[in-house]
Amino acid sequence: MQIAQDVVVAIHYTLTDDKGEVLDSSSGADPLAYIHGSGGIISGLEEALLGKVAGDKLKVAIPAEKAYGAHEPGLIQQVPKRAFQGAGEIKAGMRFTAQTEHGPRQVVVTRVAGDMVTIDGNHPLAGQDLNFDVEIIEVRAATAEELEHGHVHGAGGHHH
Fold first, then answer.
1. Is the pTM of this model over 0.90?
2. 3-state secondary structure the chain
3. Which pLDDT belongs to residue 15?
4. Per-residue pLDDT for 52 more than 90?
5. What residue ranges define each of the domains in the chain, with the CATH number in brackets?
6. What is the pLDDT of residues 78-98, one digit of tens each?
7. Is the distance from CB of 124 to CB of 108 less than 8 angstroms?
8. How far apart are CA 6 and CA 136, in angstroms?
9. CA-to-CA distance for 145 and 138, rounded, in angstroms?
10. Contact 119, 107 (CB under 8 A)
11. Residue 52: exposed, middle, or buried by beta-carbon count in 10 A (0-12, 13-18, 19+)?
12. CA 62 – CA 79 distance, rounded (Å)
């Protein structure tokens, strides 16, 4: 079976940056399982996997715009420390979910200076070109329940 819209795909992968530094890998763990076309992986990788079959291995270079997008300076802002009431001592590196006009967004604290906290809503890999070394482990039809729920059930997927 070929990878196409609404099929379950399981892959092993190693993700590196342009310097060759390993950023993430499924090595030593279950393969990553997702429903193709559901937005479960970055668009550039989905495009590269389309039409492939179990057993295929490929190396894919993905430009930032087809990965996590450009780094947007507008997503960096300063907010008063009082906005974090109940969170304890605020330190750089802490992550929070901020409620924005576009819905919830993950932010990271990058600096605390006096009563002001700098947060960054960019994905940590925004602005970076990414390189994937991928092995396709399995391609199968998604069940009706998986399609209804929008995620894979079982090994490498979601467990209810």
1. no
2. CECCCCEEEEEEEEEECCCCCEEEECCCCCCEEEECCCCCCCHHHHHHHCCCECCCEEEEEECHHHCCCCCCHHHEEEEEHHHHCCCCCCCCCCEEEEEECCEEEEEEEEEEECCEEEEECCCCCCCCCEEEEEEEEEEEECCHHHHHHCCCECCCCECC
3. 98
4. yes
5. 7-68+125-149 (3.10.50.40), 73-120 (2.40.10.330)
6. 999 999 888 889 999 999 998
7. yes
8. 16
9. 19
10. yes
11. middle
12. 34
Is residue 3 classed exposed, middle or buried when 0-12, 13-18 and 19+ CB atoms within 10 A define those classes?
buried
Distance CA 149, CA 58 (A): 29
Is the pLDDT at 5 greater than 80, yes or no?
yes
Judged by phi (left if over 0) then psi (alpha if -120 to 50, else beta), residue 156 lies in left
Cβ count near 70 (within 10 Å): 11
CB 70 within 8 A of CB 126: yes
In the Cβ-directed half-sphere of 15, how many Cα atoms lie within 13 Å?
15
Give the separation between CA 159 and CA 149, rounded to whole angstroms. Answer: 11
Predicted local confidence at residue 156, as pLDDT: 54
Which pLDDT band holds residue 33 (cuts at 50, 70, 90)? Answer: very high
Tokens of 123: 């994905």
